[in-house]
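Subject: sequence -> structure tokens, single chain

Hey, anyone have a minute? Need the predicted structure for the following. Not urgent.
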Amino acid sequence: MRIPQMIPAGPGPFFDVFDVLNGTVDMRTYQRRYLVIRAAPQNISKVTPNHAKQGRYDGDLGALVTCIEWLEQNFGWTLVNIFARTVEGRSAYEAVLSRPMTSESAGV
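Reply:
Had a minute. Here:
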């Protein structure tokens, strides 16, 4: 199985939950203070075996909560809000996170 190469995070604040969990996006390079993680209706099999072995997700919302916890533990992000909306008859979830202002994120 081919592992995708990590790409720098950004420039925008929106990321797919599975791209973050799979390590496709290098969150170490993300410079903004706010972040939005999306868990849109999709096939849960998009998660690679490396992440799947750490625990099963209970659908998109479970993956989103796992992603939030991972970002809090590894990068110091704080959950601001989770909200749901309907897309083609299925729930899509988004989480807004923030981190403390630093000189790097302030552009100083």
